[in-house]
């Protein structure tokens, strides 16, 4: 188990999990980090997943904006909650899950997290290459390779990366986004994105906005473990991420209205601005903080499986992998990817909250902590509830859940949110299972 860092060990993260844990990040460091994660090139086009949610009717622009605000508020609060255990214990996210599921069973979410983070890292390199090619040209493969190399280098000194974001990058990003927002909102729209939309798919759109945010749930503690205070970790994640994701999505809607809703051309109106190339290049280079977070957290998640593995070697290997994958993946697969993410990680947080309500955050984080299979049951129940309400559009996977829904005759009402419902159900089941486990322990001790 990692120990707090001494004054001479606060500069960087130790290579292995049993090394000291620096506690050097204040509110500005963490707030800048989360604010930068909320501004994403993927978000500009990804807002289409809110405007046109998979498996639901398209929304009006007004409904999409409201869904963005509501979904982001819920999702960012979930990210803030997931940052608390790391700040309290000094342990990364997947190690925290040893206390929830047990040492061996925590390998299940660890593997799933590694898979989703590799997916996110791959998509980030794809969108960096897309934006860079549009901005100044060049072969796509060269942008992918360049972004992959830069991403990998940044992961070798993660706390240094966070301090760089606070001191330099955040200011440049704020100027660039403000300029692009001004330019886009002063142009006449080429198409009314919501002329055929409605509010019927509001909660499906909200779930899409939540899904973008909650993809950070299983990594939040990887960074909050270095926070000076628990309250700072929660506030920085909730406020920093929430404000900028809303801004990013709204700017994306404005850009899409200028290109008739074509997500492939979302960057074209930005480049039409007098200083658009400069602003887009700033955002393109800054996008490496997204790929950095995905690669770094993939390595830290993998360390839950192999605690003595050197994080730096893992980062290099993962950086090479996502670079190779990005050479063969297109952005068209992004919306389907989101639908699966939400169903996995929203109920995971619900399980953690439900268990904490009973056991008050008392966790055994040792590598061989006793298995708690009932918590896995609570997680699976929450996942099933999410998929039955919103199967999404992933071929095969979604078809199976739709068939099951039809077989049992379940028709979810339009007002039912898959994210909120699965979170609550998972929390309730987990609380019940935790209470049952505590009662059994009392009986054993008494007997």
Indicate the CATH class of one domain: Mainly Alpha
Unreliable stretches (pLDDT < 50, length at least 5) are 5-9
Q: Report how far apart the termini are.
A: 32 Å
- Proportion of β residues? under 5%
Give the overall shape.
globular
- Fourth-level CATH superfamily of one domain: Hydantoin permease
Q: Quick one: biggest sheet?
A: 2 strands, parallel
- Helix/sheet category: mainly alpha
Q: Helices and strands, in N-to-C order?
A: EEHHHHHHHHHHHHHHHHHHH
Question: How would you explain this protein's 3D organization?
Answer:
This protein has 447 residues and is mainly alpha-helical. The chain has a domain of 308 residues: Orthogonal Bundle (Hydantoin permease). It is 70% helix and 1% strand. It has 19 helices and 2 strands. Strands 1-2 form a two-stranded parallel sheet. Helix 4 runs antiparallel to helix 11, helix 7 crosses helix 14 and helix 16 packs across helix 17. It starts with a strand and ends with a helix. The relative contact order is 0.18. About 1% of the residues have low confidence.
């Amino acid at each position: 188990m990692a120990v707090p860092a001494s004054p001479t060990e606060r500069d960087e993260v130790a290579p292995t999990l049993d090394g000291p844990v620096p506690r050097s990040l204040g509110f500005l460091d963490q707030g800048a980090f989360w604010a930068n994660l909320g501004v994403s090139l993927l978000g500009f086009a990804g807002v289409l997943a809110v405007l046109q949610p998979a498996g639901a009717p398209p929304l009006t622009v007004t409904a999409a904006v409201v869904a963005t605000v509501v979904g982001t508020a819920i999702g960012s609060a979930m990210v803030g909650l997931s940052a608390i255990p790391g700040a309290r214990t000094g342990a990364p996210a997947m190690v925290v899950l040893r206390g929830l599921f047990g040492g061996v069973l925590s390998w299940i979410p660890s593997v799933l997290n590694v898979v989703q983070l590799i997916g996110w890292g791959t998509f980030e390199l794809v969108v960096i290459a897309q934006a860079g090619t549009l901005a100044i040209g060049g072969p796509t493969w060269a942008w992918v390779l360049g972004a992959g190399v830069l991403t990998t280098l940044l992961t070798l000194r993660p706390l240094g990366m966070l301090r760089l974001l606070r001191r330099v990058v955040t200011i440049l990003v704020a100027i660039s986004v403000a300029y692009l927002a001004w330019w886009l909102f002063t142009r006449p729209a080429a198409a009314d994105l919501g002329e055929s939309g409605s509010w019927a798919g509001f909660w499906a759109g909200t779930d899409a906005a939540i899904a973008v945010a909650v993809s950070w749930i299983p990594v939040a503690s990887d960074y909050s473990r270095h926070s000076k205070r628990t309250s700072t970790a929660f506030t920085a994640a909730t406020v920093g991420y929430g404000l900028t994701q809303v801004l990013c999505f709204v700017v994306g809607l404005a850009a899409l209205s200028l290109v008739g809703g074509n997500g492939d051309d979302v960057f074209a109106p930005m480049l039409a601005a007098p200083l658009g190339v400069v602003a887009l290049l700033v955002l393109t280079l800054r996008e490496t903080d997204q790929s950095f977070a995905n690669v770094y957290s993939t390595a830290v998640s993998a360390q839950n499986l192999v605690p003595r593995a050197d994080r730096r070697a893992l980062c290099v290997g993962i950086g090479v992998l996502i670079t190779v994958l990005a050479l063969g993946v297109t952005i068209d697969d992004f919306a389907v990817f989101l639908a699966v993410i939400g169903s996995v990680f929203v109920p995971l947080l619900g399980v953690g909250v439900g268990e904490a309500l009973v056991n008050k955050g008392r966790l055994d984080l040792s590598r061989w902590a006793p298995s708690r299979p009932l918590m896995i049951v609570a997680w699976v129940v929450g996942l099933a509830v999410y998929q039955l309400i919103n199967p999404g559009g992933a071929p095969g996977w979604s078809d199976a859940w739709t068939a099951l829904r039809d077989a049992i005759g379940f028709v979810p009402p339009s007002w039912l949110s898959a994210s909120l419902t699965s979170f609550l159900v998972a929390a309730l089941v987990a609380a019940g299972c935790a209470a049952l486990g505590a009662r059994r322990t009392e009986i054993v001790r008494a007997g």
